[in-house]
Amino acid sequence: MAGAPAGGIAVNALKPWQVLSKRTLYSSPWINLDQWAVRLPDGSIIPDHHVLDYPRAAVGVIPIGADGRILMIDHYRFMTDTRGWEIPSGGIDLGEAVLAAAARELLEETGYTAETWQLMGKYHPSNGSSNQVFHCVMARGLARQSDPIDVNETLGLRWFALDEVRGLIARNEILDGLSLTTLCWAFTAYPDLAGQTEDCP
Predict the structure, then answer these.
(1) What is the structure's pLDDT at 5?
(2) Does pTM top 0.70 for this prediction?
């Protein structure tokens, strides 16, 4: 059972939401749709809470060049009919390590490899409706191996200075959630991102 966050003040001594049962309505290798029965802290029951179950987590990579610039990809998202700059990202295969998936996605979408990797952490992007997990990674020591391998994912590449990326964020021009969160996380946790080589304390 999940406890209260560190440093938090408990305002409700009742038990958290309790899962009573689960039923799968739709299943695929990509996504499952479940129906859960849950008991709320006040004792009431929701018999049909719908949950999106993602069998695979995903990872996003911030590729940082020797000059401190960030490599981003031009990506079109057909589900939202939007096009914009994103960091390389993708699903983690079953049994695949997070950093191995990050390296694979970086090579596929940019044609670059990296010498050093830093796992920043993970988060749940939509924990009111799903159990999806996103991991955030930084990569340094980049070396170009080829053109992007996955031409369906990458429409173009561009190196951005840190201030340019901050400008994209401020103008609401980065709409991809994994890219936005990973970049904001990096800017917050590593103020000297261009020269940062050590883990954040």
Answers:
(1) 62
(2) yes
